[in-house]
Structure formats: structure tokens, C-alpha cells
Amino acid sequence: MDFTFNEDQKLIQQTIRDFAETELAKVAEKMDKEDYWPHDLFVQMGELGLLGPTVPEEYGGAGTDYIVQAIILEELAKVSPAFALSIGAHSNLVLDNIRRNANEEQKKKYLPKLCSGEWIGALCLTEPQHGSDALGMETTARREGDHYILNGSKTFITNAPLAQLGIVYAKTRPELGAKGISAFLVELESEGVTRGKPMDKMGMRGSKTGELFFDDVKVPTENLMGVENEGRKIVMSGLSAERATLAAISVGISQRAADIALKYALEREQFGQKIANFQMIQDKLANMYVEAQASRLLVYWALTEIGRDHRANVPAAASIYYAAEKSTKIALDAIQILGGYGYMKEYQVERFARDAKLLEIGAGTSEIRKLIIAKDLIRKGKFEL
Fold first, then answer.
1. Which residues are CB-contacts of 183 (< 8 A; sequence separation ≥ 6)?
2. Intervals of the chain under pLDDT 70
């Protein structure tokens, strides 16, 4: 297996790295302190052609793959995991979803606006009483003539306070349970849609998260995505790519936190020598290297597998489970190496620790990811590596 990036991937990596270090770095702290969303940078991403990496060029995308999508998120996360999260929710959860599941008219109508940065997208799945049990949703849509009437609410939705378009899942046949779910493209400025206040989060600040309420919202029948009552297939088909691409954010956090720790250890002196000479510091640095590198290899391996089989659930679950937990650990170890300075905001590493934790929760918790892996092992009765 060769995970070396090709020349086109390297060019995109350098482009997004330059953008992150020169433009995003200017506002990363403001995003965290003020929960500030840099909309101009979002538009710049569109101008660079990097908001829709997996979307064909004819709709305004880059026409590449999930590897490129992960490269973009990893590089952004080294500067602002929060910005990376909003971009990931937009580009993977929405644009890639539409690319895979929408009809031609829907693609032509919505993808160019989303790829250019004119519109922001949000995936609307989670509900107040249904987190890990997402398919137990209570939002409903009943058909009346040439419209569906949508009622219900969604919560913890990334980009909800900002988005113009939502992919909203609702039950069109509630009596069928998970087999009665449908997916809709809902314009969020429609009458009957209201937004809750942006949520005040521990981390990933600047990436806006909120609630959406639907009160007799009229959704045209042509905005049904896919087949009525088969929305469960759309939900499940996107989870693997979502998990593995978002895991690249954890990889970026690990890289950045480890870099901060190493730089500090090579400069800080105690007891007459650099603290990098102390074996207990070396132990932490060595672990950081192995865990960060293993995370990266797992993520890009998983994305390679998803390129072959879109529902490669176990590689995806394994990649985000490991990468997310290790990014939290690496960030906390970096704080420990910096000591009191690590606890101060000016060294940034405490921000990365707060941001890292979300990836253990969103896109299916660590516990759910381990269940996916364990159930597959039990079903097969053997390890297949």
C-alpha cells in the first residue's frame, strides 16, 4: 500500500496550507474568542475551487476524490479545526451527498451555488431526543399535492445558523420506522423554518452549531432526494465517507499539537538543560509521533477502501475512533509538556485540546464506532487485516 500523494494532491495540499497559514491564521484566535465565522474566507475557498472537491467540474467542483477532501481538512485543522469542521460539513455531508444521491435537476440547481460559496449547506439529521439513535427521528413529512409538509426539529447541526440549504431527513411513513424515512433538499429561508440561537460550545468555536425548527414547511415534491421512504439508504451510504474524512481533522490537530510541544521542548530550559533531554518528555514525544503517524495512515487507508467500496464501515469507524481519541490525548500531552504555559491561551494548544474532544462525539461516538468494529469481527469470526 502506497499512501504517497501524487503531484496534483501535493499541489492542492500546498495551496490549502498557504491559505491556512496566511489567511486563516489571522482569524483563528478571533474565531475561538468571539465565536466568529469568517465568511469571507469561506468564499475564498470557493474561489479556490476547494469547497466541492468530490463534485464534478461541470457543477463547479474540483472533480477529485475523498483523499483530496481529507488533505484539505487536515491542513485547515492545523490552524483552525473549527473552520475545518464547517468546511467538512459543507463539502462532505452536503455537497458530496447531493453528488451521490440527487437527480440531475437538483444537482444543476444547488451544486454551483454551494461550490462557489454563495450558499452554505447543513446536514439535518440529529434530533433532541435522538442522537446515536438517529433513525429514531420524529420529524415528519406528509405529502399534500405537489408539496410535502415538514414538521419537527433538528439539533446540534453544524452550519445551521448560517446555511441556506439543508438536507433534512424526515419520516414520510412513521409507522414503518427506519424504513419510512425520506431525504429532502430544504431551502432554509422558506416560510415556517426558524433557527435557534447559535450554541455556546466548549470548543470548535466559530464553527456555528444550532437548532432548526420546521412548522408546516412546504417542500416541493421535486426536492425529494432519492426515492420516498428510502432515505435510510442515503443516511447509511454517507456515514463511512463522513467519518473517515472528518477524521482528517483529528490528524491535523495531532500534527499541530505535537509540533507545538516539540518546539517548546527544544527551547525550554530547566535544571540547566533543554527539557527535550529529559526522558519523560522524550517518552511523550515518541508516543505523539507514533500515534499521529498511525492516525494518518489509518485515515488515508480507510479513504482508499471507501474509494473501492463506499460502505466500508469498519475501516471508517476504526480510523475516526483511533484518530479522534489520539488527537485528544496528544493535545493534552502537549499541554503537559508546556506546563503552565500550555494552560494559557496564547500558546494555542489548549484550544486544540478543546476542539479535539468533539471528534470523539460527532459523526457517531467512540462507543458507537467500537460497536461497529466489534460486531463485524463477531459476524466474521476472525480478524481480517
1. 101, 167, 168, 169, 224, 225, 226, 231, 234, 235
2. 1-2, 131
8 Å CB contact between 366 and 323: no
Q: How many CB atoms lie within 10 A of CB 1?
A: 6
What tens digit of pLDDT does each residue of 255-295 get?
999 999 999 999 999 999 999 999 999 999 999 999 999 99
Query: What residues are labeled active site?
Result: 242
pLDDT attached to residue 382: 85
Instruction: Specify which residues 184 forms β-bridges with.
Output: 168, 224
In degrees rounded to 5, what are phi and psi of residue 360?
-85, -10
C-alpha 5, offset from chain centre: 21
- The whole-number pLDDT of residue 1 equals 65
* Each residue's pLDDT tens digit, 205-218: 999 999 999 999 99
Q: Which three cell numbers stand for residue 320?
A: 475516526
Taking the C-alpha atoms of 8, 11, 16 and 20 in order, what is their torsion angle to the nearest 10 degrees? Answer: 160
Q: What is the DSSP letter of 20?
A: H
Compute how many other C-beta atoms are within 10 angstroms of the C-beta atom of residue 347.
Answer: 18
Evaluate whether 235 touches 134 at the Cβ level (below 8 Å): yes
For 113, other C-beta atoms within 10 Å of its C-beta total 17
Distance from C-alpha of 21 to C-alpha of 26, rounded to nearest angstrom? 8
- The distance in angstroms from the start CA to the end CA of the chain is 13
Task: Give the residue among 147, 139, 124, 146 at the shortest CA–CA distance from 172.
Answer: 139
What domains lie within the chain, and their CATH numbers? Answer: 7-119 (1.10.540.10), 123-229 (2.40.110.10), 232-380 (1.20.140.10)
pTM over 0.85, yes/no: yes
Strand, coil or helix: what is 230?
strand
Are 228 and 182 in contact by the 8 Å Cβ rule? The answer is yes
The pLDDT score that the predictor gives to residue 245 is 95
DSSP 63: -
Evaluate whether 246 touches 88 at the Cβ level (below 8 Å). Answer: yes
**Cell (9 digits) for 314:** 469498519
Dist CA 155 CA 124 (whole Å): 8
